[in-house]
Specification:
- The structure is a single chain.
- The protein has eleven helices and ten strands.
- It is α/β, with parallel strands linked by helices and about 260 residues long.
- The protein has two domains: about 5-60, Rossmann fold (3-Layer(aba) Sandwich), CATH 3.40.50.10480; about 75-264, Rossmann fold, CATH 3.40.50.150.
- Helix 8 (about 165-170) packs parallel to helix 9.
- It is elongated and about 65 Å long.
Amino acid sequence: MKAIVTTAYRPTEALKKKAEKVARNLAIPFFERNKRSIDKLHEELGCDVLVAAKERLEFYPLGKTEPFFFHPNSSAFRTKRPIADDPLIEVSGLQSGDSFVDCTLGMASDAIVASQWVGEKGTIVGCESHSIIAYVIEQGLAGYEKMPHLNEAMRRIQVIHMEALAYLSTLPDNSVDVVYMDPMFTEEIRESSNFLPLRKTANTGQLTQAWIDQAVRAARKSVVLKAHFRSGDFETFGFQRRVRPNTKFHYGVIDCQAEKLRND
């Protein structure tokens, strides 16, 4: 048993039904909370715990006491600035009505920014290989209402429970406008604390040439990488690095049209 679903500490009947539904959706067991702490559940059951709380789902990987849950994170303030000046939008060449694939969905902050920018005629897909993380993010995007200006952008995002390389391999040539990848940094950025509960749980796979090749094949406009400023992936995989002074991560871009012309 790798994971179970339970309720908040003092559940109502409605919360119990919610938890049972989540368990069915994920095909994992439901356990009564019986006023046990998360630590106690971890100790007794030896598995991850997903809590169906009143307003959100909270995921506690084994051994962690701080939960992972959905919230818009940096997209909350990034979308209140001129989005055209957002470094992701600027470097990618993304435009209204475009299609965008986020290979490393995470908290979905970048996908939300992209969705706000491309608008109702655009298409946003986010890949997440971990089934419970994918479910928590999908449910959060569908139900979060504390930032009304982002509601439509969040609802447009399609969460795909799949490895990015496997998903990209299903796409026809030149079928999306921008492919984006933000693999978990090998060097922890202390200020980026929102994903810390998942650091040993989330997919930490790093870039491969196969991943880049599939991304370039599928994208019409660009492939964009976000990585730690010390990362050598920009140079290794042929990204044009866009240096951002006084920041701990940079963006890199591959111009897909130019790349394909060179390879013809």
